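Input record, target 12 of the design panel.
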């Protein structure tokens, strides 16, 4: 995986979420020998030397993709640069949603009628980003979703509450995943507890598939495959 360099955009706001994402990225990328730089939301407008990166990873966010934010234009600009130079992009949760908003527009993102919080089974296709993981269980934590993709997109994953858990833009190295392979395993139950204390209809949205640390480790293949195939 020589000559691969990833720009990681950690646009999470809550400290606990931000740290868990950072730790997970370090755990996976360091094990793969991947060079990466992390940029946080406060510095997103100042990203430079984009041409030196081969891959872009966009995190989730507590923000809603259906609303406007002062940093949207900066994120749009970075994505536009990577697409224009045909470099690889992987968006996770909010990042997955924002990619579709960027490419197709706001009519293709919406509030979910069936949000998911917790652990769930992910039904996956034979897309090469899932190579080595014939079955997949992962974490979910979202209240928004994407919808009405056109023929340029292949739906590559779903769950029983979300019809589009993953997509690839056909013929492009552009992927989005609604679920969360990007938090530390031991933090997911803690984050679920935060939702329990703050969401009035928690029991309606709580996903309770038992997932062991070994089962979650299969999510590592996603990052490895993403780097290798693009």
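The sequence produced for target 12 reads:
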């Amino acid at each position: 995986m020589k000559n691969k360099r990833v720009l990681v955009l950690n646009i999470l706001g809550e400290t606990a979420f931000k740290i868990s994402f950072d730790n997970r990225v370090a755990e996976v990328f360091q094990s793969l020998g991947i060079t990466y730089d992390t940029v946080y939301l406060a510095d997103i407008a100042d990203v430079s030397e984009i041409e030196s990166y081969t891959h872009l990873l966009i995190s989730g966010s507590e923000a809603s993709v259906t609303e406007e934010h002062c940093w949207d234009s900066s994120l749009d600009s970075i994505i536009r640069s990577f697409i224009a130079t045909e470099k690889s992009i992987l968006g996770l949760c909010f990042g997955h949603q924002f990619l579709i908003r960027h490419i197709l527009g706001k009519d293709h993102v919406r509030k979910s009628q069936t949000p998911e919080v917790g652990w769930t089974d992910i039904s996956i296709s034979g897309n090469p980003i899932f190579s080595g993981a014939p079955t997949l269980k992962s974490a979910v934590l979202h209240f928004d979703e994407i919808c009405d993709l056109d023929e340029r997109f292949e739906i590559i994953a779903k769950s029983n509450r979300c019809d589009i858990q993953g997509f690839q833009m056909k013929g492009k190295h552009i992927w989005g995943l609604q679920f969360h392979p990007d938090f530390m395993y031991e933090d997911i139950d803690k984050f679920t507890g935060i939702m329990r204390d703050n969401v009035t209809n928690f029991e309606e949205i709580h996903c309770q598939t038992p997932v062991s640390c070994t089962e979650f480790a299969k999510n590592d293949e996603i990052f490895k495959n993403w780097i290798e195939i693009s």
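The CA atoms of residues 48 and 75 lie 13 Å apart.
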